[in-house]
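Before going further, it is useful to explain how the protein records used in this thesis are read. An example of such a record is reproduced below.

***
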Amino acid sequence: MHPLHHHVIKANLKDIRPTQVSIGYLEVIQKRAEWKKLSKKQKSALLDDHWFPSILGPNKVYYIIDHHHLGMALHQEKQIEVNLTVLKDLSWLNKDTFWRVMEFHQWVHPFNELGQRVAFSEIPQSVAKLSDDPYRSLAGLARDEGAFAKDLTPFSEFLWADFFRIKIPKKSISNWNESLSLAIKYAQSKDASYLPGWAGKDKA
């Protein structure tokens, strides 16, 4: 998904900026549960192996472009420091040009938990402030159940979340069993054939 890293640095989790507005909190809960099962040594190994890909932006601020769910999980588990791999130094650009370049490379997803586009200025200033999009949680569940294949297209799960947002009423989303069953059915339909990772079959 990302080009080869240039170098790896250590950074305080509270200082790094996200490049999206929302995440699926259910996925965060799952990652926290996995984290709690690890020994201290295993936690250290996981942090060493999971570099947050980042872009150095204006004012020497690091913007992570992946692993937002893990970032929120680690924040809630009170992890202070993480490893960043720095893919590009864009710190010399002004803010407007910076965001234009970020969007061109699909390194930013400026859409809120309702699937609505927002201004770049509305992207949270910290991972801790990412909002919950239950449809993104549903997309993650559906992917894990094989409803569609994991795809390297940036933010592909958000495309699926927006698809489910149209198909499944919000009042049904809190019943995960019911909404997951519907999501799997819709994901395999021809209506979803334009989406990355679609694994359905054409029907006559």
About this structure: The chain has two domains: 7-132, 134-191.
